[in-house]
Amino acid sequence: MKLIDKLHRDAPLATRNEITPKLGFLLTILLALAWLIPFLWMGVATLRPASDGINLMAELMPSLKPTLDNIRDAWEIGDFPRYLLNTTIICTGILLVQFVTITLAGFAFARLDFAGKTPIFYLFLMQLMLVPVLLIVPNLSLVVQLGLYDTLAGVMMPFFASAFGTFLMRQAFEAIPTELEDAALIDGASLIQRIRHIYVPLSLPSFSAFAIISVTSHWNDFLWPLMVINSPDKRPLTVGLSVFTKTAEGTQDWGVIAAGTLMVIAPLLITFLIFQKRFISSFVTSGIK
Amino acid sequence: MSLAEPAALPVAASAPRRLHIAGRFTARFKASLPAYLLLLPSLVFLALFTYGAMGRVIIDALYQRATPKAPLRFVGLDNIAAVLADSAFTGAVINNLIYAVGTAIPSIGLALLFALALARTNVVTSALRAALFLPVLIPMVAASALFLFIFLPNVGLLDYYIGRLLPVLPNWLGDPDIALYAIMIITIWKNAGYYMLFFLAGLQAVPEDVMEAAHLDGAGPFMRLRYIILPELKPTFLFVIVIATLNAVTQVDHVFVLTQGGPSNATNLVLFYIYQQAVEHFDVGKASAATLLTLAALMGLTALSFRTMANREGGP
Question: Is A158 on the interface with B (CB under 8 A)?
Answer without folding.
Answer: yes
